[in-house]
Amino acid sequence: MGLRSRILVATDFRPGSEEALRQALAMARGAHDVAICHVMPEVRTVRPLFPQLQIDDSLAAVELEAFAREECERFRERAGAPDIDAYLESGAPHVKLVERARRWGADLIVVGAPRSSRATTGTAENVARHAPVPVLVARESGTGPVVVGCDLSEPSLRAVEAAGKQAKAMGKHLVVIYAIDAERELAWLGALRRFSDVARETYTTRLITKVEDAASELGQAIAGIVPGAQGDVELGEPAETLRRRAHELNASLLVIATHGRTGIDYALVGSVAEAVIESAPTSVLVVRDIDASAAEVAAD
Questions:
Q1: Apex 81 CA angle, 75 and 86, nearest 5
Q2: pLDDT at 191
Q3: 141-300 matches 1-140 in CATH topology
Q4: What per-residue confidence (pLDDT) applies to 42?
Q5: Radius of gyration of the chain, Cα coordinates, nearest whole angstrom
Q6: Alpha carbon of 294 to those of 8, 100, 146, 203, 225: distances in Å?
Q7: To the nearest whole number, what is the mean pLDDT of the chain?
Q8: Which of 274, 276, 255 is nearest to 266 (CA)?
Q9: Which of 105, 107, 108, 267 is most buried, by CB atoms within 10 Å?
Q10: How far is 108 from 26, CA to CA, in rounded Å?
Q11: At residue 138, does pLDDT exceed 90?
């Protein structure tokens, strides 16, 4: 973050939100601005045939807003930060959070995950997909290194750079994981065992060479970004591999890049980032592809 950055924390007043604010305040350390944002459900409804019901809706909206303001005040007091700004919005949570982040000029959005489950609600995934800035999905985390996923694409290399900065700020070691999704290759290898030793050995050699080449490329890439970082190449589905390694290492943070895809692109490519967000064992920092962010802002 810059010399004086802004961190916007989404809150629904549940325990996951308290963890989100706690982590945001810890990151800010008094050197950055923190604000909270609560999105209320839309209550007002146009009822031309039943004006008396419209009056009831308006009264309900006023009462809901008053309740939300009181809860925001109590929420800030529990966190020991009674003076931070609080914003109230009405509508779809992820839409209003992203809009508020843009208007306020936020440099980071922090959202919480439910304490009862490692799975987040749809709000976290949607904010990560549409936000023009990095998004931290806050969970109770370990004390081990910072872990970052990298496939050597430009967005993932920017995520490595961001992870390096976070690791330095937290005083942690950085582990860079390159997961090669070799499910098809491993299936072929299993099939070849029944037919030809020569074919199996040839295919095994090709697979080993692929891993060695990836390890060499990864080492060269991270040496120029975060000298001293540990680079590991593993065979496996990327999201599951990242979750497993984060658990094994008791990671304090897991960093992942996202392209912010929607529609057909999202359906075709899938999203490792969202799979990680859903069930990671630690907090997840989602670093948005700056090119995708610029294109989305221009389209708005």
A1: 60
A2: 60
A3: yes
A4: 77
A5: 22
A6: 20, 17, 27, 43, 23
A7: 82
A8: 274
A9: 108
A10: 13
A11: yes
Q: What is the pLDDT of residue 31?
A: 86
Q: Report residue 53 as tokens.
A: 């019901």
- CATH superfamily ID and name for 141-300: HUPs (3.40.50.620)
Q: Using CA atoms, how far apart are residues 200 and 203, in angstroms rounded to an integer? A: 5
- The contacts of residue 47 (CB under 8 Å, 6+ apart) are 53, 54, 57
Tens digit of each residue's pLDDT (9 = 90 or more) over 214-248: 999 999 999 999 999 999 999 888 999 999 999 99
The arithmetic mean of pLDDT across residues 260-271, rounded, is 46
Closest CA to 258 of 181, 172, 153, 176: 153
Write out pLDDT tens, residues 273-286: 888 998 899 999 99
Q: Which residue has the tokens 């009462």?
A: 63
One-letter amino acid of 202? T
Q: What is the pLDDT of residue 274?
A: 83
Q: What is the DSSP string of the chain?
A: --SS-EEEEE--SSHHHHHHHHHHHHHHTTSSEEEEEEEEPP-----TT-HHHHHHHHHHHHHHHHHHHHHHHHHHHHTT-TTSEEEEEES-HHHHHHHHHHHHT-SEEEEE--TT-S---HHHHHHHHH-SS-EEEE----SS-EEEE--SSHHHHHHHHHHHHHHHHHT--EEEEEEE--HHHHHHHHHHTTT-HHHHHHHHHHHHHHHHHHHHHHHHHHHTTSTT-EEEEEES-HHHHHHHHHHHTT-SEEEEEE----HHHHHHH--HHHHHHHH-SS-EEEEEPHHHHHHHHHH-
In the numeric block, the tokens 């019901």 are attached to 53
Determine the average pLDDT of the residues in 40-54: 60
pLDDT of residue 11: 94
Domain ranges of the chain: 1-140, 141-300
Domain 1-140 fold is Rossmann fold (3.40.50)
